[in-house]
Specification:
4-stranded antiparallel sheet, single chain, 2 domains, Multidrug efflux transporter AcrB transmembrane fold, elongated, alpha+beta, two-stranded parallel ribbon
């Protein structure tokens, strides 16, 4: 099966994942954490299981029940997100939980000002845009402009897939999510460049009359074992961290897992086919198919 001749099916498969994510982003946006919205976050570990309703009773005593989000985990850890609390209000909440449900270990007690969160969101978007621009320049110089353009579109595909699924599954987006996105960008472009480098090498030894789609297909197949082995190794590590790394880094690792799988897919099934389509639109005779 020639991967370039069947490229329309790979584009459709990508759209089947991206479109539901875009619909979710438009209808309910993202589950922004306090890093972006401002507020207080309290994470406590109890000696016994504590339910969401039990925690809500204490929050109701401080008129916070309807304004807060509560998450529990299997290790008796409770994560509470509230509007911004001052030091006294925060201490009263922790004290109320301790008095009602026994001894607890305070894992986190953070406060983020809304002004700081707006600046963080702006800087996060700026960081991603700068990364895009620098990669486009580098790949354009190292290879050619259309290689760079195809790589950027493939990376943008990975970001849309990751952010869209984060919206669908309502994963919390915080400052570590920005690190996850930038890591995904770096992983995806690295995988793509490996394939592009093989395409460029094969172009130098190209047989007369060899169709460009067959050359690209053979280049992808020559690097396929490397791509699959690399992504599987990373997936095994991420799965171990998701299940055994604790609740604090779980969302970060889930986003990385989504992005790594999407990055491997886009490098193989999107980036090179896009470059072929760009050459075809440019009028390259070898890309006439």
């Amino acid at each position: 099966m020639n991967l370039i001749k069947t490229r329309k099916y790979w584009y459709i498969l990508s759209l089947l994942v991206i479109i539901p994510g875009l619909i979710s982003l438009c209808t309910r946006t993202l589950n922004f954490g306090i890093d972006f919205t401002g507020g207080s976050l309290i994470e406590a570990k109890f000696d016994r299981p504590v339910s969401v309703d039990e925690v809500r009773v204490v929050l109701a005593q401080q008129n916070l029940a309807d304004k807060s989000q509560i998450q529990t985990s299997t290790d008796n850890t409770v994560l509470i997100k509230t509007p911004a609390l001052d030091q006294t209000e925060s201490a009263n909440l922790v004290s109320g939980l301790q008095q009602k449900y026994g001894k607890l270990e305070l894992l986190r007690n953070e406060k983020v000002d809304p002004t700081v969160s707006k600046e963080l969101m702006r800087n996060a978007a700026l960081a991603v845009l700068i990364a895009f621009a620098l990669m486009l320049v580098y790949i354009g110089i190292r290879f050619e402009f259309y290689f760079g353009l195809a790589a950027i579109i493939a990376i943008f595909h990975d970001i849309l897939v990751t952010v869209g699924l984060a919206s669908i599954f309502w994963l919390e987006i915080d400052s570590t999510s920005v690190a996850a996105i930038l890591t995904i960008v770096a992983y995806s472009v690295h995988d793509t460049i490996v394939i592009f480098d093989r395409v460029r090498e094969n172009l130098k030894t190209r047989k007369k009359g060899e169709p460009l789609d067959e050359l690209i297909h053979h280049s992808i197949m020559q690097t396929l074992n490397r791509s699959v082995n690399t992504v599987m190794t990373v997936i095994f590590c991420l799965l171990a961290l998701i299940f055994f790394g604790g609740v604090t880094i779980r969302t970060f690792m889930i986003m990385l897992l989504i992005g790594v799988i999407s990055g491997a897919y886009s490098s193989i099934f999107n980036a090179s086919p896009l470059w072929f389509d760009f050459k075809r639109l440019k009028g390259d005779p070898a890309a006439s198919r």
